[in-house]
Design goal:
Shape: flat
Structural class: alpha+beta
Helix content: 10-25%
Order of helices and strands: EEEHEHEE
Largest sheet: 6 strands, mixed
Strand content: 25-35%
Distance between the termini: 13 Å
């Protein structure tokens, strides 16, 4: 077994409120890759709808869903993996209204192929680490070698 922590962020503190302007780096990586004899498992840290400077890109729930899943796809691509390799997601939202639930499932359906939907947990929470963040998703994937 080989474990690799992969950090894709250019800024060590990722412009996270509370540690911006300090010498404290963000103490997490974008993905942990565990290589086993026949496959690799990928553990993707929670992603929000942020640009490369760590800023939330929109105040629209749908646009944040799109950007969050796009950010996950980018992390997976850095590891030669794809969205259909995801086996589990954990989703945090700040407003679990019926409308947002419909939007979330509609957007997710564009990122996963029929028959490969991951197991998933959806949780409503009071706020996320980024001001204005409406959704955060973490993912686990399995990739055949």
């Amino acid at each position: 077994m080989r474990r690799t922590s992969v950090t894709l962020a250019k800024n060590p503190n990722r412009n996270i409120p509370g540690i911006i302007g300090t010498s404290i780096p963000a103490a997490f990586c974008d993905v942990v890759r565990v290589d086993l004899p026949t496959h690799s498992t990928l553990y993707v840290s929670g992603k929000l709808a942020t640009d490369e400077d760590g800023q939330i890109v929109s105040d629209s729930f749908e646009e944040q869903c799109e950007k969050t899943l796009s950010n996950i796809r980018d992390v997976l691509q850095s590891q030669d993996a794809k969205m259909d390799d995801i086996v589990r997601t954990l989703i945090f939202v700040t407003d679990l209204s019926d409308e947002n639930l419909r939007i979330l499932h509609d957007v997710r359906g564009r990122y996963f192929s029929e028959g490969t939907f991951p197991a998933s947990t959806l949780v409503e929470c009071s706020k996320l680490v980024r001001p204005g963040g409406l959704i955060e998703i973490e993912a686990e994937a399995i990739v055949k070698l």
